[in-house]
Amino acid sequence: MGIPNNQLETWANPVQHISAMKSHESIRNALALRNWQGSLIDVYLQGSYRNHTNVRGSSDVDVVVQYDRPGYWEAFRQDVLNDLRRSYGTVEEGNKSIKVRAGSFDADVIVCEKLSGSVEGIRFYTHRQYPRREIKNYPKLHIRNGEIKNQNTDEVYKPTVRIFKNMRNWLIERGRLNAKTAPSYFVECLLYNVPDSNFINVCDCTVLNVLNWLHQNGVRGDLSCQNGQTYLYGNAPEQWSQDRASQYINALIGMWNNWGS
Fold it and tell me: How confident is the model at residue 34 (pLDDT cuts 50, 70, 90)?
């Protein structure tokens, strides 16, 4: 019973993120001459590539283009869009991001402005949804909190996240889980809530500890996203449903209990 350690260790291994660095550098270069309203912009990676929790088959690289003066999002977005078109030709305007398909890399570019106030966050608006909806996010807090948790667990947290993302992929490939049930971001946020003491080392002990904790606590309404600012579960489009989380957790437990059978 249980998944052997050699399989877990394989799933825990990091995947090279050359494409992420290439896209980040390329988009930075495309915007290098941009000095908007007297202020330089901040271009940085977010998502699983930046957090080093990406696995094989990870989706497009997420690049944030942030302007630090609130109140100019619409004009700023248009200028960034024009710069990207000049550098890459045709780009697709999605509801939340600008999708760059450059041949050597694919990237989703989030154009945003810094939130006013003491909490470090960003704000942008939907593009194709009317009336436009404001979206707030906290990518730098997400990154920082993940790094702190990884340090507090002797660098076991991030390899464990990669294991659970690979377990999800294994279930999807075999038709045991719908591909939309457990997005990468939500998987990472879910594991962020597991107490540090459960992360012993990269082996079956940690995975079993996490599964036991999730079985008892995984759909509690008070669980937070890794940014520490928003609840993981809710009705907003940027939140997970407890029903889908429960499907994912139950599929994981069934996978563990029936491995090799």
Answer: low
